[in-house]
Automatic annotation (TrEMBL):
Keywords: DNA-binding, Transcription, Transcription regulation. It comes from Trichococcus shcherbakoviae subsp. psychrophilus. Transmembrane segments: none annotated. Residues 7-74 form the HTH gntR-type domain. InterPro entries: GntR_C (IPR011711), TF_FadR/GntR_C (IPR008920), Tscrpt_reg_HTH_GntR (IPR000524), WH-like_DNA-bd_sf (IPR036388), WH_DNA-bd_sf (IPR036390). Pfam families: FCD, GntR. This is GntR family transcriptional regulator. GO terms for molecular function: DNA binding; DNA-binding transcription factor activity. Gene3D superfamilies: GntR ligand-binding domain-like, Winged helix-like DNA-binding domain superfamily/Winged helix DNA-binding domain.
Amino acid sequence: MESLERTQTKDYIADILRTEIFKRNIKDGEKLKQSEVAAAMGVSRMPVREALQMLEMEGVLERLGNRHMKVNGISFESAKAQFRMIKALEKEICLILSEKQVDAQPFRKIADAYKGKMVAKDSEGCRKLELDFHQLLSEATGIPTIKRAHEQLLSGFFTFAIGNYDFDLEANYKHIEKISQHLAENDLSKLMDGFEDYFQYYVEILKKELEGMNNEHP
């Protein structure tokens, strides 16, 4: 069985590399070598190799023939595609929640808590609650395979974008509040429209942020 310490270490390394790549501090096309990453972070090669494999599975890195990894980075088109996949899965999840008539109160609680953090101008707290809202969707299905697939989609660029990009807290609250309300009403038509509006809003943010980053890192 894999030790907890090693699991935590590889996740930590993957988080650092992922953030540096998405911030363009590690450039697209740059080559990463296990030994160099391990030396720079002061860790052994084993968790570095596992972290690089995780990022390869996410599409952030590409394996080369000489055992090096090449950075693929993130473009507006690839980011938009990832968000589109999450939107499609979350719409399907809502169909399951509707069929099961799942209690929407936990979603309303997150929306209410978000409003409180927004009033307090706690941006970090709002961002965490927004991720909690998405994670709760798949948890509420009670289906482990859907939960794992959803978590994998959320764990990469999506989490980075919500945690780092500049957005309007009030606009985000309105989207989350509407979706939670439509869940409570079990109104599928409005629920689907709510997800379309929410993700379209984020596509506009992605375009602004990634185009701005391209100008900073030509």
